[in-house]
Write a structure and sequence with these properties.
Blueprint lengths: L2 H16 L5 H15 L5 E8 L2 E9 L5 E3 L3 H9 L3 E3 L17 E9 L2 E10 L7 H16 L3
Antiparallel strand pairs: 1-2, 1-6, 2-3, 4-5, 5-6
Helix pairs in contact: 1-2, 1-4
Bound molecules: methionine sulfoxide.
Length: 152
Amino acid sequence: MSKFDFYQQLNAQISAVICDESDTIANMANISALLFEHLPDINWAGFYRKQGQELVLGPFQGQVACIRIALDKGVCGAAATSKQTQRIADVHQFDGHIACDARTNSELVIPVIYAGEVIAVLDIDSTHFERFDEDDQKGLEATVALLVKNMK
Ligand code: SME
């Protein structure tokens, strides 16, 4: 199956699960579970929610993670402040990367933007180098769009 088809199917399933639910934390929880179950070669999938000048751990699947990340720290902070997806092929080359899990080698972080403001980030980690390509980025940005669509 092509990655395009894979993400079409995954996002159709996510759309069916979140349906017309508007509780963002509940939707983040189910999205984390579906991503962790279906994405191959990942070791963490979840959300950090923006609270003031920090990102605070939200619903996730995987090992225990750092609870608070300052906005000027880490890949997550870079995604939140730049409002741009960060696709990092080798986290060890990223200045300021926060190693919650020492096994992580690549990372994709997508800002969740509602009404022009970053309200959270979706963070996905892999033990593989260069785990995420442009197709993964597009597919997972579409996942985040499904979450935003249901916010009220
Ligand atoms: N590595 C992230 C921190 C979050 S954990 O990977 C779950 C970062 O540098 O922002």
